[in-house]
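Extended Data, panel c. Modelled sequence:
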Amino acid sequence: MSRPVDRVRRLLPLALLLGLSGCSLAPTYHQPSVGALPDAYAGAAHPDGWTTADPADTASRGDWWKVYADPALDRLENQLNANNPNIAVALARYEASRAFEQQLHASQLPQAGVLASPTNDRQSNNRPLRGANQPNEYDTQTLEFAAGYELDLWGRIRNAVAAGTAESDASAADLASARLSLQAQLADLYIRLRGYDVQARIVQDSLDAYGQGRDMTRQRMEGGVSSGLDVARADAQFADAQAQASELRAQRALTVHAIAALVGVPASGFSVPPSPSAMTVPAIPLGVPSTLLQRRPDIAGAERRTFAANANIGVARAAFFPTLSLSAAIGWQDVGQGNLLAAGNRFWALGPLASLSLFDGGLRRARVAQARAELDAASGQYRAVVLSAFQQVEDNLSLLQELGREAMQEDAAAAAANESQTLATNRYKEGVVSYLDVVSAQTTALQAERTAELVRTRRLQASVDLIRALGGGWEASAKDTQITKR
């Protein structure tokens, strides 16, 4: 009966070590709460209510800019994805974080190595405890194989690996966030560029009309029907329109240069052919699902950094407990004579090593306090990012609604101004009104058309900002709402 008992006693320490190797001193992780949320967006109907903004940023966003149905924009976005230097920087940082994560994973495995050391040595004549028959110079040959493994009794290594993995995931989210932000920035610039093209067409049409009016006033002055005042007014109006056209060309050039920088080419050799056709504002769904906020990479990155900060508390707390490692070494050593691998030259060592700091002046306690403070900061940052995301969605939904109404009003104003321009021109030809009335009507018509186009451009830009605020689109699918569990 004694043998089974002895076996149990011998196995108890091993069982205890194995049990300790599964424990962790990190607090149980809870995703930070952002407080009570409303039942729906104020700017759009939402039948399903809110869901928690857990990370789902790995869901494919697709080519979200295709909702604008513009082949030129498609080409530029693809060029940006391939050549933008800021995306390349974010990608390099992500790869560096992945490499660091792999370094942390390596600490979970046993380490082994080999040492070979053929040396020639001379010892001091006055070396303490030197024997009388010891030579001054001698050779040493050493060949050693060694292995070591730290038992992760308190979860220090596991928590460090978990924190590193979460930081790596956060870096991936940073990459996705940089890519989405740059894509949206390019779309915004492209929309602005097309807005300049449409305004340039409007101004050019006005220039044609103003040129005809100027010719008409000169003919009427030569016929004695009009005075030189009408000609001066027509000349001033024509010159002002020319100045507006020059300003539009300057703004367009700056926008093209900005697009060139985004797509990764020198501005000097880059151009975007003008297109006077107005872009169409995409249809925005009335019910924008709140689950799409899960796809925002900045929310995902903030959540993962909160998880990493929580795991780092476990790393700091583990320092209060002893570390235990196992090491083994075997090798051969001689004085450079005979067979190094002879049995008599061998040596070996096998055993555990335990260490525990007894006094450190409060260093470990301070590190735990720092880790807890960093968790509080990460939790606060997560809440701030989520609340900012909701604000951005609401802002752009409100903008789209109000700009939609404003666009209808401005279109009506432009139509009325064009009608007034036609009537004033006809009445001037009939001699009923002065050319001042024509100039006033034409100026109002030009301004109304340009304002209508500016509102259309702002609506398009607000739609881009809404897509960015939702994390890359408003098309929800079952895959989009899947949440990856750690």
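The chain has one domain: 22-112+153-322+366-481. This feature is highlighted in the accompanying rendering.
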